[in-house]
Specification:
By secondary structure, the protein is an alpha+beta fold. It has one domain: Ribosomal Protein S5, domain 2 (2-Layer Sandwich). It contains eight helices and ten strands. The chain has a five-stranded mixed β-sheet with strand order 1-2-3-5-4. A five-stranded antiparallel β-sheet has the order 7-6-8-9-10. Helix 1 links the parallel strand 4 and strand 5. The longest helix is centred in the last third of the chain and has 35 residues. It is globular. The termini are far apart. The structure holds uridine-5'-diphosphate. The site of uridine-5'-diphosphate has 16 residues, from helix 2 and helix 3. The site of uridine-5'-diphosphate (UDP) has 16 residues, from helix 2 and helix 3.
């Protein structure tokens, strides 16, 4: 691992990668990237690369795990062994189980699970390359994959982290800022402004905490614009397609709709810079290693107790396969 930098913020107020203190890393995303998933999203955020896939709603097996009045959401956050400098041991770790749990809870208030009693909605978030902020990157991608799967939701969920370096609050920490900084505060915020994930690692004052919330709200607002832009682009493209006569074979049409040409591919992936131009000034948004103890305090914001034991082995999709096999 590289050494701690002498200074994180220079005399011009710029960070080591040239960003302002309140600037998030460049982000781009694409939905519908996996043909076998019901919904999917590939997201790049700075040096982070994340893939999210959603399967369902589908009947939950074994049946004893079914909820009579709603669908069960299962969320699996996983870091690929090759995603970090030092190889990660494959399989669940204390850290990944914790992140899966809090990420699932970030979605529970927005997904209309009551529409699908007895069903399960599986969300897989695979981190392919990590550079800090992977839980928030995964939430942003999962939100898009859920929308891509057509899962009814009250709104999208957007996530980013604030932190503290050189005595100043900053938005969207990169790896050096995360590793050597004084605080890391990841948050997820719904499009209605409800905070559904709030964790904190480090020491900050009450004022700094308020500042962190303000910064994350603004970061999430920008991410939400990009998410909406990405969805609009996909559906606008579907609108452009001429509806063929009933007798005509529609398979060619479906192919041309879902598979953009090579020239299109590059330009079709919306970037956060593009979305920023289109930002509406609204008040929509109000208000660490394998098997290690987490440094985060999980601040419960959303009602409804959900204990750590919830993410037990019986809930993992792999087990379901074993049981049904
Ligand atoms: N990291 C690592 N090995 C691990 C866990 C994390 O190298 O076992 C790195 C990775 O780059 C990650 C960063 O440390 O993005 C910060 O990890 P943290 O636990 O704070 O979660 P994140 O910020 O990615 O949500």
């Amino acid at each position: 691992m590289s050494d701690k930098p002498e200074k994180f913020i220079d005399e011009n107020g710029l960070r080591l990668d040239g960003r302002r203190v309140d600037e998030i890393r460049p982000m781009k995303m694409e939905i519908g990237v996996l043909s076998r998933a019901d919904g999917s999203c590939y997201l790049e955020w700075g040096k982070n690369k994340v893939l999210a896939a959603v399967y369902g709603p589908r009947e939950l097996h074994p049946r004893r795990l079914q909820k009579a009045d709603s669908a069960l959401i299962r969320y699996r956050y996983n870091m690929a062994a090759f995603s970090v400098e030092d190889r990660i041991r494959p399989g669940p770790s204390r850290r990944s189980i914790e992140i899966s749990k809090v990420s699932r809870e970030a979605f529970e208030p927005v997904v209309l699970t009551h529409l699908y009693p007895g069903a399960v909605i599986d969300v897989f978030a695979e981190v392919l390359q990590a550079d800090a902020g992977t839980r928030t990157a995964a939430i942003n991608a999962a939100s898009m994959a859920l929308a891509d799967a057509g899962i009814p939701m009250k709104g999208l969920v957007s996530a980013c982290a604030a932190g503290k370096v050189d005595g100043q609050m900053i938005l969207d920490l990169d790896k050096a800022e995360d590793n050597f900084g004084d605080a890391d505060i990841p948050m997820a915020i719904t499009s209605e402004g409800e905070i559904t994930l709030l964790q904190m690692d480090g020491d900050i004052t009450q004022e700094e905490f308020k500042k962190a919330i303000e910064m994350c709200k603004e970061g999430c607002r920008q991410i939400l614009e990009l998410q909406k832009e990405t969805l609009k682009n996909k559906f606008a493209k579907l609108d452009e397609v001429e509806i063929p006569d009933e007798e005509e074979d529609v398979s060619a049409l479906v192919e041309s709709t879902l598979e953009p040409s090579e020239e299109e591919e590059e330009s079709d992936i919306p970037k956060i810079e593009d979305a920023e131009e289109d930002i509406i000034d609204d008040d929509e948004i109000d208000d660490k290693s394998e098997d290690e103890e987490s440094d985060y305090e999980d601040v419960e914001i959303v009602e409804g107790e959900s204990s750590f034991e919830d993410v037990d082995e019986a809930e993992s999709p792999e087990d379901e396969e074993e049981e049904t096999a």
